[in-house]
Specification:
With 248 residues, the chain is of the alpha+beta class. It contains 8 helices and 10 strands.
């Protein structure tokens, strides 16, 4: 599901107002979730795996310095930050796996993330994959997240498809990554990017959005209204992350 996150930070790729970033060539981060008919992944696991896939791409040595993906990642981050989630199964998935990228596995989910591509420059084996209609369910409610685990809190008042929610979780993980210092990033990477995606009750959500933690605000291209708060990124190393424990 194609969408863009925004947050009112000057010169931010997520800023809602038009700016210089809109004049730059626009790139997108492709993510493909494997959804086999006989064994689709659980929704929460798919969201968590997509978020970790974004972090894996950002933290990969090929995305930094003179790495083979570094220029594409810089071009993507110099413009608007867009992510598109598509779905694949069977031969489609095998063709996607043959392209340069990284496959990230969860409990039941597999997500492959690819280096950013121009909006109109998708590889044909990815461009043909379906975007809309990606929906998944949780067979049972996810367990409560531990206080030491970074949590991406989803807006309880928004009804999003799984594809849309996966992209939003990825935005939240990216905002948290940007806010962390080098030491906290290194520790998160070394631990394998543990995180949880959870939906708080409305009262807790209200407190989270005013806690000072990073907030994703959607540009409103698909499914939801422009400026909607979709995710709050709560990492223990972020300032005022104690808001999570205070709201429990």
């Amino acid at each position: 599901m194609s969408n863009e996150a925004t947050t009112p930070v000057p010169d931010s790729p997520f800023r809602p107002e038009p700016g210089d970033r809109d004049l730059a060539p626009q790139f997108v981060l492709p993510l493909v979730v494997r959804i086999e008919r006989a064994a689709p992944p659980a929704r929460t696991d798919a969201l968590e795996t997509a978020a970790r896939a974004v972090l894996v791409m950002l933290g990969d040595e090929r995305s930094a310095g003179d790495g083979e993906w570094a220029q594409a990642v810089r071009d993507w981050q110099d413009a608007r930050i867009r992510k598109v989630v598509r779905r694949a199964r069977g031969a489609e998935w095998r063709r996607a796996e043959a392209l340069p990228g990284i496959t990230v596995g969860g409990g039941s989910a597999e997500v492959r993330v690819f280096p950013p591509v121009p909006l109109d420059g998708w590889p044909k084996d990815l461009a043909r994959l379906q975007v809309s209609g990606t929906d998944l369910d949780d067979p049972e409610p996810p367990a409560e997240a531990g206080l030491s685990v970074p949590v991406l809190w989803m807006n309880p008042d928004l009804d999003m498809s799984a594809g849309k929610a996966m992209a939003q979780a990825g935005h939240g993980a990216q905002l948290a990554w940007w806010e962390l210092d080098a030491g906290a990033r290194a520790a998160w990477r070394a631990a394998g990017y543990p995180l949880a995606v959870r939906t708080p009750d409305p009262a807790r959500w209200s407190g989270l959005t005013t806690s000072g933690l990073p907030v994703v605000r959607d540009a409103g291209f698909t499914e939801i209204a422009p400026g909607s708060c979709t995710v709050v990124a709560d990492h223990p190393a972020l300032p005022r992350a104690t808001a999570r424990s205070e709201s429990n």
